């Protein structure tokens, strides 16, 4: 693999990671309620789960999971249920609009709980594993490229996701004062909640 091919692959994965998805929505949700620190914990959780799935895909374990229908279905339904749960919570927050009380509740939330939200949103999403298994073979040549190449490409995909989420956190930090307006916050919570529920429903229907 040449550096030119790798560079094109990395840019393509970064562009794909910038498209709004469940992981970005969970990071945004935690950034809105817990600031950059809260969003950072969620981003860290997503990153660890992403690295886990990347390693499984590069080592061939992902294919085993995909070919085991009961395991795949269990992961799919668990992921859909969890995304819907997070989405409903965001929608309830938007409906109530009591951000003074929510701020106190958010302050009491531990970093581990935010990390767990990020980890589970990614780890229970089988579409992440599908992405790895559909993209990696296109850049790997049997008998020429090895496990090291597969791991490099898989970790590049994971790194692209983390970079996209860090950019999102930077944006949230820059416009924090505007985001703290009640009407804006309610609108964002409504959009985030609807998106998460939509992603959960899409998992079930696919």
Task: Describe this entry's structure for a reader.
It is a single chain. With 206 residues, this protein is mainly α. It has ten helices and no strands. Helix 2 (22-58) packs antiparallel against helix 8 (147-174) and helix 2 (22-58) crosses helix 10. The longest helix has 37 residues, at 22-58.
What's the total count of β strands? Answer: 0
How is the quaternary structure best described? single chain
The radius of gyration computed from the alpha-carbon positions, rounded to a whole number of angstroms, is: 18 Å
> Ends: how far apart?
34 Å
Average residue pLDDT: 85
**What percent strand?**
under 5%
What is shown here, in short?
The chain is mostly helical. It has ten helices and no strands.
Chain-wise SSE layout:
Layout: H1 3-17, H2 22-58, H3 61-67, H4 69-96, H5 99-108, H6 111-123, H7 126-135, H8 147-174, H9 176-179, H10 182-205
Helix pairs in contact: 1-8, 2-6, 2-7, 2-8, 2-10, 4-6, 4-10
Defining traits:
mainly alpha; globular; 206 residues; 85% helix
């Amino acid at each position: 693999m040449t550096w030119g091919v790798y560079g094109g692959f990395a840019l393509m994965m970064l562009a794909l990671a910038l498209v709004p998805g469940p992981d970005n929505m969970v990071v945004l949700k935690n950034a809105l309620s817990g600031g950059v620190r809260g969003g950072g914990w969620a981003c860290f959780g997503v990153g660890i789960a992403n690295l886990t799935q990347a390693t499984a895909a590069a080592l061939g374990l992902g294919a085993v999971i995909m070919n085991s229908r009961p395991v795949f279905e269990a992961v799919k339904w668990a992921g859909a249920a969890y995304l819907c749960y997070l989405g409903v919570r965001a929608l309830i927050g938007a409906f109530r609009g009591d951000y003074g009380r929510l701020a106190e509740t958010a302050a009491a939330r531990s970093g581990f709980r935010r990390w767990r939200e990020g980890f589970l949103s990614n780890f229970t999403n089988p579409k992440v594993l599908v992405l790895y298994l559909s993209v990696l073979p296109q850049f790997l040549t049997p008998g020429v490229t090895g496990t090291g190449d597969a791991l490099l490409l898989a970790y590049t995909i994971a790194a692209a996701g983390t970079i996209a989420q860090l950019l999102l956190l930077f944006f949230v930090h820059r416009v924090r004062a505007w985001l703290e307006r009640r009407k804006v916050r309610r609108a964002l919570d409504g959009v985030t909640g609807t998106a998460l529920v939509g992603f959960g429903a899409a998992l079930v229907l696919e």
